[in-house]
Write a structure and sequence with these properties.
Length: 118
Amino acid sequence: MSRSDVLSLYRRVLRIARSWTAQSALPHDTDTERKYIAQEARTLFRQNQQITDPESIKRCTEECEARIEIGLHYRNPYPRPTYLPPMGLATQKGRKLRAQQRLRKQAKPVYLHSHDET
């Protein structure tokens, strides 16, 4: 992806934020969700501003596009949670713990890669 493609994606997110209407249609909720969308876009795009690896750029743009589509489809700008409890299937030490951590990392949806583990 070129710089202009990334910038057009950023502009698309900001346009969505400007025209966003909350599902509840309450002005306060709409304003809160608009601010969240714009702040989240600013934070993540600035956080990833220094990335130069084409594969990493592609992964970040795919995450952004996935979050846009999910947000528009469900009319909810917040990332969807994952319901696998932390370390729910592994003991606290040893090989099973490392395998569980690896599986959790692999199972993380594309639209949540920019969020820290909870």
